[in-house]
Amino acid sequence: MNDKVILKINNLHKYFGELEVLKGIDLDVYEGEVISIIGGSGSGKSTLLRCINGLERKNKGDIVFEGKKVKRDFTKLRERIGMVFQHFYLFPHKKIIDNITLGPRVVKHTAKDEAKNQGIKLLEKVGLEDKADVYPAMLSGGQKQRVAIARALAMNPDIMLFDEPTSALDPELVGEVLQVIQQLAKEGMTMLIVTHEMGFAREVSDRVIFVSEGQIAEMGTPEEIFEAPKDENLKRFIQSIY
Ligand code: ADP
Ligand code: MG
């Protein structure tokens, strides 16, 4: 982590109809920083990530990426920000390698061989080089999620967003996915991770954010958040988890 702010979120508001889901989020993300986002169901965690990469349109506030305010150019931004979802969303009728090379081929017009070579390297990185030519249905949930991570990395993003990447997995498959994310952290990838894996959040994060009712109710180091929580809702949340 260094002292360059790569992503700045200023006074972000999001409504779904009458419902105000994000009520003024402010956050500076430093290059190489790992931030875990914790909070109860319905507090706005997914909406926050989705607004950051433009999957949801914000209603108010600014997103500043690498010093430039993002206006209508969310398509460009999405190439720089990778996202991994709870439910993988691999293309079922495409081989694993083709799932990974599709983005670079279509969006970046990367040559076929080059995209494939990169894809194989990424599969090696997530420990699945032997699965290049099989279809998603032949993989376990943990393997599918590792492919989804490789697919996001294929676009060579500056930031990775993870929305509960292990919540849909059987318990014995959680570790293999967390290990891949941990490796990315070691390599200096900037990441925002929504997770209920508190042990993992504690270990991997530079900062932890507690979201409650659409606001950042508390933000601090893992020690501050888990050992000495101040916000009453955070105290209750931590007690409910352990
Ligand atoms: P979390 O990820 O913390 O569980 P979400 O960001 O998914 O919370 O949701 C926050 C609130 O916004 C919830 O009340 C949810 O029902 C609502 N919400 C989320 N997505 C939509 C949508 N597309 N349309 C209407 N309401 C939504
Ligand atoms: Mg969510």
Automatic annotation (TrEMBL):
The keyword ATP-binding is assigned to this record: yes
Top-level division of the source organism's lineage: Bacteria
Entry's localization field: Cell membrane
InterPro entries, alphabetized: AAA+_ATPase (IPR003593), ABC_ATPase_HisP-typ (IPR030679), ABC_transporter-like_ATP-bd (IPR003439), ABC_transporter-like_CS (IPR017871), MetN_ABC_transporter-like (IPR050086), P-loop_NTPase (IPR027417)
Keyword entries, A-Z: Amino-acid transport, ATP-binding, Cell membrane, Membrane, Nucleotide-binding, Transport
Main location: membrane
Ranges where the ABC transporter domain occurs: 7-238
Membrane topology: Peripheral membrane protein
Listed GO MF terms: ATP binding
SUPFAM superfamilies, alphabetized: P-loop containing nucleoside triphosphate hydrolases (SSF52540)
Assigned protein family: Belongs to the ABC transporter superfamily.
Protein name as it appears in the record: Amino acid ABC transporter ATP-binding protein
Annotated organism of origin: Fusibacter bizertensis
Source taxonomy: Bacteria, Bacillati, Bacillota, Clostridia, Eubacteriales
